[in-house]
Amino acid sequence: MTDKALVYRLRLQEPVLVAQAQAGEENSAVGLDYIPGSSVRGVLVARYLEAQRGAGAAAGDLMTDAVARRLFFDGDVRYLNAYPDRGGKRMLPRPLSWMTEKDRAGEPEGTLFDLALADPGLEQAKPPSNADFCTTDIPDTSSSDDGDGVKPRSVLDGVRREVAVHIGLRQANVRTELNDVYRYVALAAGQVFQGAIVGPEADLIAVQRLMAPAPTVYLGTARTAGYGRAELDDITLQAWEEYTPGHPFEGLVVVTLLSDAILRNPQGHVDADLDGALGRLVGVPELRSERRFHKTHSVGGFNRAWGLPLPQNWALAAGSVSVYKASEVDAGALRAALAAGIGERRIEGFGRVAVNWHTAAQREFHRPIAEAQVMPIVEEPESLELARLMVQRRLERLLERGLSKAVGQATFSSLPPNSQLSRVRLAAQRALHDGSLVELAAYLQALKKTRRQRGQFERARINNEPALDWLEARVGRQDVEDLLPEGGRMPSLAGEKASLDSDLKALFTARLIDGVMRKAIRSNQERGVDR
Fold it and tell me: Domain map of the chain by residue range?
């Protein structure tokens, strides 16, 4: 549905920290991966008050100001989230139903399968890594390939973050153990985000007057620590569509959240029942989704006037997908009913919904490469050798970190005696010495032939999986690439790419088994069942 919108870009001059509700420990703040509409609205409210004071008007209650109410509170003007800008397009949250093959999750290009529309029969489906946002290069024109065999394409990308540690001094220039340490994970400077404000044209012109004179804005928290400065740019009032609908897929209606949605049932309780909310909206009380890909999390906010956080609520996460039969709900009626969004806090960009936005069962994807990531190709043999050495060392460091994390997160139940665990550990240590998993595999086969020991390892659980199955899977698959972050992407430098060869796989498989067995033995000891 075409609407009038004030479209703008935010160029981050400093890191921006708009903390999300689930920020972790007390002295940590983990920022959102977008600029929320509430932050932009807050900036413009402050400018409106400043303009009123500059005109000699008394700074009264905004809720008694008819113009302020119309621009910021009544709901006709809605401040949508600013998402990453790629190629002049405002990216949108990637649908949670988009999956790819596990070994392609971190690749720069490949095929996406929309599980909301069809089951491709993937053995191991995984969402693409570092790809929370997407754009559509070629709109969906049919439910399958066109006559030339060209699938729809999408650009996938994520945001860059900056991690910094700050020390709060109890006394100026005095560092002691009592000082507070803060860890901030913020949006990195240098990125560009695109936002939109939708509403009546006359109101948008008034908002544009507030935005245009001063391009510099400050967003989020920790501003005195060098966070929050951004530049407003390319502010234009235009006809605008948040997404381009595709053709229906085989009698289905696909509903996708383009931002978090806070839903409340008729009893006044916050819930995640999108079926019920949509059914009440279009008069179909028994509306039930065929398939759904939902995620919930807590959302909050901050009222700068009060100096207090807003109450936290559960929300359906952006990218959540529900699929309905077209015979039960009309897509056109649903799209019209959802034009202004759904749920609460829609003024701040919550509750944006797309109907039949992605309607292709398969599509190709690629990732843009930033200029800073483009490395020159090196031809000198000495430089090539140095690059190979550097990427291999980087790979090994990543594997070390992943190994430590995997061992630390291992869980157990009904463990065998420590004598049996120690024998498995000894076999793993021999594999480390020999550089081969042959003897370890042979030991597991022998263990299966002994009824008592086999029963103990089959009853035991490692990560909620039978311990014997877990051990055999590790030895058989040697899937140490799962230890790598970002979907197993190999480090590369100057055209050289790290290699995860068989020796390295055997080494880290043996170390993983050794570490997990060591932790299991300690677990027995801590529970007083050291046998």
Answer: 381-526
